[in-house]
Amino acid sequence: MIMKSLYSLIGTIVLISSCQTENKQNTLLYINHVNKLELLTVDDNCGEWGGNEKQLIIYRDDFKGQLLADYSEKTKTCGNGSESKITKLIKRIKITEEENNLIVESINELCKNKMDREEYPSHSGIFNRIMLSDSSMIITDFPSVELKKFNELVQKLNLNN
C-alpha cells in the first residue's frame, strides 16, 4: 500500500512538472543577425531642417542568440547647414526581458499615435520611424510626438548619461 501511494505521488509530480511550460517570452523572434530592427527619432530642434537624432538598432549574432542593440546619438548644429555629428555611440548592449517589452511597447505606441490622429501638412516637427531591415515593416510618422516608451527604454539602457 505504501509503495502504491509512493508510485502515485511520484507519477503525479512527474505529470505536473511535465505540464508546466517554460515562461520564456518569444517576442521579437523575427529579429536576427540578418534582419535588424531600427528605432529612430529626430527632434524638431532646427525646425524644418530636423534636429538631433537618437537611433537604436536591435539585432542578434545568430538566429536564437541574445538580443543586442547599438545606440547612437547625432547632434545637429542649426543654421550652418552642416551634417549631424555623432556625439554618442554604444555597441552590443545586451537587451533584458524588460527592455524587450519596452521595444514592443514603443512599436505599439508609435502605431497608436499615428492611427489616432488626422493627417495634416507640416514643414517641421518630430520624426519617428521603426523599420525592419528587410523592409517588411516600416512605420514612419511625421509630424509625430515624443515616444514615451522609447525614452523609457533609452533610460533603462542607461544611455542618457
Automatic annotation (TrEMBL):
It comes from the Bacteria. This is DUF306 domain-containing protein. It comes from Flavobacterium pokkalii.
